[in-house]
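Quick one, C-alpha coordinates below. Sequence please?
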Protein backbone atom coordinates (compact mmCIF):
# COMPACT_ATOMS: atom_id res chain seq x y z
CA UNK A 1 0.00 0.00 0.00
CA UNK A 2 2.74 2.39 0.87
CA UNK A 3 4.46 1.58 -2.38
CA UNK A 4 1.22 2.16 -4.25
CA UNK A 5 0.73 5.64 -2.86
CA UNK A 6 1.64 8.48 -5.17
CA UNK A 7 4.82 10.14 -4.06
CA UNK A 8 5.25 13.86 -4.74
CA UNK A 9 7.56 14.38 -7.64
CA UNK A 10 10.95 15.71 -6.80
CA UNK A 11 11.92 18.65 -9.03
CA UNK A 12 14.57 17.88 -11.53
CA UNK A 13 17.85 19.64 -10.88
CA UNK A 14 18.66 22.63 -13.00
CA UNK A 15 21.64 22.37 -15.30
CA UNK A 16 24.79 23.32 -13.50
CA UNK A 17 23.11 23.33 -10.04
CA UNK A 18 23.85 20.86 -7.21
CA UNK A 19 21.39 19.68 -4.58
CA UNK A 20 22.15 21.08 -1.20
CA UNK A 21 23.77 24.22 -2.53
CA UNK A 22 22.52 27.52 -1.07
CA UNK A 23 19.65 29.18 -2.97
CA UNK A 24 21.64 32.26 -3.84
CA UNK A 25 24.09 30.11 -5.80
CA UNK A 26 21.41 29.54 -8.44
CA UNK A 27 21.36 33.18 -9.41
CA UNK A 28 25.08 33.72 -9.65
CA UNK A 29 25.19 33.23 -13.41
CA UNK A 30 22.31 35.63 -14.10
CA UNK A 31 23.00 38.25 -11.45
CA UNK A 32 22.70 41.77 -12.81
CA UNK A 33 25.84 43.85 -12.68
CA UNK A 34 25.19 47.53 -12.00
CA UNK A 35 27.49 49.89 -13.83
CA UNK A 36 28.20 53.24 -12.22
CA UNK A 37 27.94 55.59 -15.19
CA UNK A 38 27.07 58.65 -13.13
CA UNK A 39 30.67 59.78 -12.89
CA UNK A 40 31.21 59.58 -16.65
CA UNK A 41 27.99 61.46 -17.44
CA UNK A 42 28.82 64.11 -14.87
CA UNK A 43 32.32 64.53 -16.28
CA UNK A 44 30.96 64.84 -19.82
CA UNK A 45 28.54 67.56 -18.74
CA UNK A 46 31.26 69.49 -16.96
CA UNK A 47 33.45 69.29 -20.06
CA UNK A 48 30.70 70.85 -22.18
CA UNK A 49 31.78 74.35 -23.04
CA UNK A 50 28.37 76.02 -23.33
CA UNK A 51 25.19 74.31 -22.13
CA UNK A 52 22.96 77.40 -22.47
CA UNK A 53 24.12 79.11 -25.69
CA UNK A 54 21.05 81.35 -26.04
CA UNK A 55 21.26 82.63 -22.48
CA UNK A 56 25.02 83.15 -22.82
CA UNK A 57 24.51 85.11 -26.04
CA UNK A 58 21.88 87.47 -24.61
CA UNK A 59 23.88 87.92 -21.41
CA UNK A 60 26.47 89.79 -23.49
CA UNK A 61 24.38 91.00 -26.44
CA UNK A 62 22.38 93.81 -24.83
CA UNK A 63 25.19 95.26 -22.72
CA UNK A 64 27.78 95.12 -25.49
CA UNK A 65 25.27 96.58 -27.96
CA UNK A 66 24.59 99.48 -25.58
CA UNK A 67 28.31 100.23 -25.32
CA UNK A 68 28.87 100.03 -29.09
CA UNK A 69 25.82 102.20 -29.78
CA UNK A 70 27.05 104.80 -27.30
CA UNK A 71 30.46 104.93 -28.97
CA UNK A 72 29.31 105.04 -32.60
CA UNK A 73 25.78 106.44 -32.48
CA UNK A 74 26.92 109.69 -34.12
CA UNK A 75 27.88 107.68 -37.21
CA UNK A 76 24.36 106.32 -37.68
CA UNK A 77 22.12 109.16 -36.56
CA UNK A 78 22.34 112.85 -35.80
CA UNK A 79 19.34 112.69 -33.49
CA UNK A 80 20.34 112.77 -29.84
CA UNK A 81 16.86 111.66 -28.74
CA UNK A 82 16.93 108.55 -30.96
CA UNK A 83 20.37 107.55 -29.68
CA UNK A 84 19.36 108.24 -26.07
CA UNK A 85 16.19 106.14 -26.30
CA UNK A 86 17.94 103.27 -28.13
CA UNK A 87 20.74 103.00 -25.58
CA UNK A 88 18.33 103.27 -22.65
CA UNK A 89 16.18 100.47 -24.10
CA UNK A 90 19.24 98.25 -24.56
CA UNK A 91 20.28 98.93 -20.95
CA UNK A 92 16.77 98.11 -19.71
CA UNK A 93 16.63 94.86 -21.69
CA UNK A 94 20.04 93.94 -20.32
CA UNK A 95 18.99 94.62 -16.74
CA UNK A 96 15.85 92.49 -17.05
CA UNK A 97 17.48 89.55 -18.86
CA UNK A 98 20.48 89.35 -16.53
CA UNK A 99 18.37 89.69 -13.38
CA UNK A 100 15.62 87.24 -14.32
CA UNK A 101 17.08 84.78 -16.85
CA UNK A 102 20.83 84.53 -17.37
CA UNK A 103 21.82 84.64 -13.71
CA UNK A 104 19.49 81.77 -12.90
CA UNK A 105 20.58 79.63 -15.86
CA UNK A 106 24.32 80.31 -16.00
CA UNK A 107 25.29 80.41 -12.31
CA UNK A 108 22.16 79.37 -10.39
CA UNK A 109 21.74 82.72 -8.60
CA UNK A 110 18.82 85.13 -8.36
CA UNK A 111 17.78 88.17 -6.37
CA UNK A 112 14.67 90.29 -6.08
CA UNK A 113 12.86 92.76 -3.87
CA UNK A 114 9.94 91.40 -1.86
CA UNK A 115 7.19 93.41 -0.18
CA UNK A 116 5.41 91.72 2.72
CA UNK A 117 1.74 92.09 3.60
CA UNK A 118 2.54 94.76 6.18
CA UNK A 119 4.31 96.84 3.51
CA UNK A 120 7.84 96.01 4.62
CA UNK A 121 10.27 95.87 1.70
CA UNK A 122 13.36 93.69 1.85
CA UNK A 123 15.83 92.15 -0.60
CA UNK A 124 16.08 88.41 -1.13
CA UNK A 125 19.29 86.76 -2.38
CA UNK A 126 19.27 83.07 -3.30
CA UNK A 127 21.87 80.56 -4.44
CA UNK A 128 20.51 77.35 -5.91
CA UNK A 129 21.71 74.10 -4.36
CA UNK A 130 22.02 71.65 -7.23
CA UNK A 131 24.03 68.57 -8.09
CA UNK A 132 27.04 68.81 -10.34
CA UNK A 133 25.08 67.46 -13.33
CA UNK A 134 22.63 70.38 -13.17
CA UNK A 135 25.25 73.02 -12.44
CA UNK A 136 26.59 75.41 -15.02
CA UNK A 137 29.90 74.82 -16.75
CA UNK A 138 33.04 76.73 -15.90
CA UNK A 139 32.98 78.55 -19.24
CA UNK A 140 29.45 79.84 -18.64
CA UNK A 141 30.28 81.01 -15.12
CA UNK A 142 33.41 82.77 -16.38
CA UNK A 143 31.51 84.55 -19.16
CA UNK A 144 28.77 85.57 -16.73
CA UNK A 145 31.09 87.13 -14.14
CA UNK A 146 33.41 88.78 -16.66
CA UNK A 147 30.49 90.43 -18.43
CA UNK A 148 28.95 91.43 -15.11
CA UNK A 149 32.14 93.10 -13.84
CA UNK A 150 33.77 94.59 -16.95
CA UNK A 151 30.76 96.45 -18.37
CA UNK A 152 30.10 98.62 -15.27
CA UNK A 153 33.81 99.53 -15.30
CA UNK A 154 33.47 100.66 -18.93
CA UNK A 155 30.45 102.81 -18.07
CA UNK A 156 32.42 104.35 -15.20
CA UNK A 157 35.14 105.29 -17.70
CA UNK A 158 32.43 106.84 -19.91
CA UNK A 159 31.25 108.87 -16.92
CA UNK A 160 34.63 110.50 -16.36
CA UNK A 161 35.25 111.04 -20.08
CA UNK A 162 31.83 112.67 -20.45
CA UNK A 163 32.38 114.80 -17.38
CA UNK A 164 35.83 116.03 -18.42
CA UNK A 165 34.82 116.64 -22.04
CA UNK A 166 31.77 118.63 -20.85
CA UNK A 167 29.31 116.54 -22.84
CA UNK A 168 26.73 116.98 -20.12
CA UNK A 169 23.78 115.95 -22.29
CA UNK A 170 25.09 112.35 -22.16
CA UNK A 171 25.71 112.43 -18.43
CA UNK A 172 22.21 111.26 -17.45
CA UNK A 173 22.42 108.30 -19.83
CA UNK A 174 25.85 107.27 -18.52
CA UNK A 175 24.61 107.47 -14.93
CA UNK A 176 21.63 105.28 -15.88
CA UNK A 177 24.01 102.72 -17.40
CA UNK A 178 26.17 102.68 -14.28
CA UNK A 179 23.14 102.37 -11.99
CA UNK A 180 21.44 99.50 -13.85
CA UNK A 181 24.53 97.39 -14.33
CA UNK A 182 25.95 98.07 -10.88
CA UNK A 183 22.62 97.00 -9.36
CA UNK A 184 22.92 93.57 -11.01
CA UNK A 185 26.55 93.28 -9.94
CA UNK A 186 25.69 94.19 -6.35
CA UNK A 187 22.78 91.73 -6.26
CA UNK A 188 24.73 88.77 -7.62
CA UNK A 189 27.70 89.39 -5.34
CA UNK A 190 25.29 89.21 -2.41
CA UNK A 191 23.81 85.99 -3.85
CA UNK A 192 27.29 84.50 -4.10
CA UNK A 193 28.13 85.44 -0.53
CA UNK A 194 24.82 84.09 0.77
CA UNK A 195 25.46 80.81 -1.05
CA UNK A 196 28.90 80.47 0.53
CA UNK A 197 27.46 81.22 3.98
CA UNK A 198 24.76 78.56 3.55
CA UNK A 199 27.37 76.00 2.46
CA UNK A 200 29.42 76.88 5.55
CA UNK A 201 26.38 76.41 7.80
CA UNK A 202 25.58 73.04 6.23
CA UNK A 203 29.19 71.90 6.65
CA UNK A 204 29.29 72.97 10.30
CA UNK A 205 26.01 71.15 10.99
CA UNK A 206 27.41 68.02 9.36
CA UNK A 207 30.46 68.00 11.62
CA UNK A 208 28.34 68.74 14.70
CA UNK A 209 26.01 65.82 13.98
CA UNK A 210 29.00 63.58 13.24
CA UNK A 211 30.47 64.36 16.67
CA UNK A 212 27.25 63.64 18.56
CA UNK A 213 27.70 59.80 18.68
CA UNK A 214 31.22 60.30 20.00
Amino acid sequence: KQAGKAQPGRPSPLPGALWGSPPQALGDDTEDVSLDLGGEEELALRKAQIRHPLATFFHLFFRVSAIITYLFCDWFSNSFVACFVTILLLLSFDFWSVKNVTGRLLVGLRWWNQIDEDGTSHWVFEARRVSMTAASTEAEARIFWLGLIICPVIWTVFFFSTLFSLKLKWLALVIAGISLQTANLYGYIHCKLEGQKSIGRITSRFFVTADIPK
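The radius of gyration is 32 Å. The first strand starts at residue 109 and ends at 115.
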